[in-house]
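Progress report, Aim 2. The chain analyzed during this reporting quarter is listed below.
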Amino acid sequence: MPIYEYHCDQCDHDFEYLVFNAQEPETCPTCNSSQVSRQMSICGFVSKGAGGETVSSSASANSCSGCTATSCTSCGH
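Predicted structure tokens for the chain:
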């Protein structure tokens, strides 16, 4: 069963929800608003080179604060 991330447009609360049988949350757990939407989650990964060295890691582990790029080649850092 997957855990998805959601955002409430009414109170600006972000929350996770364990989805059973494709039943998504009907309301926000904080304010009970029905204005919730599923968000894109950041996944984590580590790529290894032929010699076992780390060649890249997840987007959330990049060195640029506030950067949402998946690699530093797009911003030049």
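The chain has one domain: 1-57. The domain at 1-57 is CATH 2.20.28.10 (Rubrerythrin, domain 2). These observations will guide the mutagenesis work planned for the next reporting period.
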